[in-house]
Amino acid sequence: MKCLCFSDSHGTDLYIKRALDKHPYAEVVFFLGDGLSDIEALTERDRGKRMWLFVRGNCDLQSWVNGIVAKKTDEINLLGKRIVFTHGDLYGVKYGTDGAVRLGVERRADVVLFGHTHQPFEKYASTDNGGVYLFNPGSIGARSAAYGVITIENENILFSHLAFL
């Protein structure tokens, strides 16, 4: 299963559209906040093609997409992997990853996705219960627009960062 991961579009959907076109077989799209209004038309266009999962960021003035309320933090199980996704502002990710790790432990997650910092980031954090993958796709609205691709296959998870330069 291929998933796309975007965050922090801040008023532009150009690179989200390009990434969607580049990855037509992606089944799931995570949007990690700060640009909910940017994805509204895209989620409508994609209805029935792929699943869109989204959360609200600290700069989102609206709190819904096509009538669906955006939480600040949400979670899903995909192919046996528990994925928690959030914008990250509530967990202090600009100052370190301790809050994201605690979130992963509390929710018994395999993966925590977050944005907010605008910086691509990937790390495996060991915990008392094993560990949790942390992944930030970077900002799709930045000058060198970055996004993530997550591939889940059998027991494996592969994280990739891609950018438009």
Q: How would you describe the overall organization of this protein?
A:
The protein has a single domain, classed as Purple Acid Phosphatase, chain A, domain 2 (4-Layer Sandwich). With 165 residues, the chain is α/β, with parallel strands linked by helices. It has helices at 14-22, 36-45, 98-106, and strands spanning 2-6, 28-31, 51-54, 64-65, 68-69, 73-78, 81-86, 111-113, 121-127, 130-136, 146-153, 156-163. The strands form 3 sheets. Strands 3-2-1-11-12 form a 5-stranded mixed sheet, with helices on one face. Strands 6-7-8-10-9 form a 5-stranded mixed sheet, with helices on one face. The protein has a two-stranded antiparallel sheet with strand order 4-5. It is built from 3 helices and 12 strands; from the N terminus they run E-H-E-H-E-E-E-E-E-H-E-E-E-E-E. The model has no long low-confidence stretch (mean pLDDT 96). It is globular, with a radius of gyration of 14 Å.
